[in-house]
Amino acid sequence: MPHTVLRGPREVARQPELDSERAIVRAVRGAGVPEHVPVQVENNVNCAALAEQRDGCARDERTFAMLQIGVGIGIGLVLDGRLFTGANGVAGEASVMPFPWHPGGVPQHEGLERHLGSAGLMQRVAAAWPRDAGPCPATAEALFRLAGATDVDGRRSSTARRMVDDHAVEVGRLAAALVSLVDPGLVVLSGGVGSNPLLLPGVRSVLDTLPWPTRVVPSPLGVSATLTGVTRLAVASAVQDLLARLADPVALPG
C-alpha cells in the first residue's frame, strides 16, 4: 500500500505546530489509513518545490528556491539537489517573520504574511483605490485580471496595474532578502498571485539591484505543483521502504 504523504513527525519549535501535525495524523488514521501504513507530513510549498525539481523549470538546477505568494506566503529550498527543511523541519516558513522593519515600526509576529498575503494586498488596494477610478476589485484575482486587461476603461486598468506593480516590488524585496541569505541562483515564483506574469517584472527589477545575478521565473506547473510533488514524495518514500525491506531478510514476509 502506498505511503500517505504529509510531513514527517518532528519535534518543532512551537507546540501549536506539533499539535497540528499530530491532529493531521489522527485525522488520516481516522479516515481509514491503517497503523502499518507510514504517514509523512510535509508542507505544500516543499512539495511544490520537489515537483519543480523533477517536472518543472528547475530540472537542471542543483540549488534553487520556490517563493509562493498567494493567500499566504512560504519558501521551499532545494540545496545541492536535496530539499532543505532545517533542524525542526520548518525552514522557509517566511509566514512567521515579524513585520514591519522600518524605524519606529513595531514588528508583529507573522506580520510579513499579513502584509504580503492576498488579504493584506486587497486591504491596501481598497484603502488606496481612487474614487474616480470606478469600482474597486474585490479579490486579488480580479485585480490582476483588470491590471492585464486592454479592452476595459483605461483609468481602472492603469490604476490596477500600478497597484500590482507596487505589490511586485514588495514581493521582490522578500525575494532579495532570500537571495542575499541563500544565493539560490534561481527563484521560482508560485501561488495564486506569485505565478502571475504581471508580478515578474517588478520582482526582477528589485533583484537586478543586487551585485550578483539571479534568475526569476514563474512556475509552469501552476496549481498542480503541490499534488505532483506529493505524488513524487510518496513514491520515493515507498521505494526507500521497499529497498530497506529487501536489504533486511528479517523484515520480509514469510
From TrEMBL:
One protein family per Pfam: ROK
SUPFAM superfamilies assigned: Actin-like ATPase domain
Superkingdom of origin: Bacteria
Family: Belongs to the ROK (NagC/XylR) family.
Protein name as it appears in the record: ROK family protein
Source organism (scientific name): Angustibacter aerolatus
